[in-house]
Amino acid sequence: LFVMATSFLPVPFLFVFCVLTCTTAHVFADQRLRLLSLVNFYPGILALVFSLFSNSLSPTLSLPGLQEFVQTSLFGPHFDIVRLLVNCCIGMLFPFAFVAFCESVVVLAEWGKDSESRTPVVPLRDLWFTFCRGCGEELGWRCYLIPLLLRSFPVPVALLLTGVVSAIYSVPTVLLAAYKSGTSRPLLTTLMHFLSCLVAAFPFGYVAIRSGFALLPPALLRLALSYN
Fold this sequence. Notes:
Elements: H1 11-29, H2 33-36, H3 42-52, H4 54-57, H5 66-75, H6 81-109, H7 127-149, H8 155-180, H9 186-210, H10 216-226
Helix pairs in contact: 1-3, 1-8, 3-5, 3-7, 6-9, 6-10, 7-8, 7-10, 8-9, 9-10
C-alpha cells in the first residue's frame, strides 16, 4: 500500500503527507506536553524509512538508498571534513542576524514592551535533547526533502516549499503547547512561529545546500537559534 501510493503522489509529497499525518495523529492522540517533543523525530525517521524503500518507491528516479543517504547526511557527499566544519560555522552565525531581525519586529510592533528581560528558549540541561530533536527535523527537511524538490523546482521555490511544509508541520504542536502553557495570545504565537518557519527556511536551506545536504550544519544552526 505504501509503495502503491507513489502512483498517486510524487515521492516528496508522499513523504510530506506521511510526516504531517503522523504529527497530527500524535498531537491529537496524546496531548501530554512531555511526549509532544517526540514529534520532532518523525521527519528524520520517515526519511530513513523512505530511503530504505527507495528502489521500490520510484526505480526510475534513482533515489538515494539508506546507506548513501546516511553517509551523505553524516559527512556530506565527498567526505570533505574542512568544508563541513566551515559550513557548521556559517550555520551558527545565521541565528544572530535572524534573532536581531525578529527582535526589531517585536520592538517596532511594541509586542515586547512589557518584558524587561528575555530568558533562554531551552534550558541548558536539555542541550543534548534539543540537539537530537533538531537533528530529527533537519534530517527530514534539509537532508531528504530539499534534494528531492530540487529535482523538479528551482532553488528559491524548493526552499519556499520546504518552509511552507515545516511551518504547517509545526502548527499543531505549537498551538497545543501555547494553549497548555496559558499563553495570552496562542493564535498570534502560532502565527508568528509559522512566519518564522517560512523565513528560516532560506538560511537553513542555504546552509544545507552549501554543505552538500549534510546534517550537522543545519542542526547546529537550529541549536544556536534555540539559545538566542
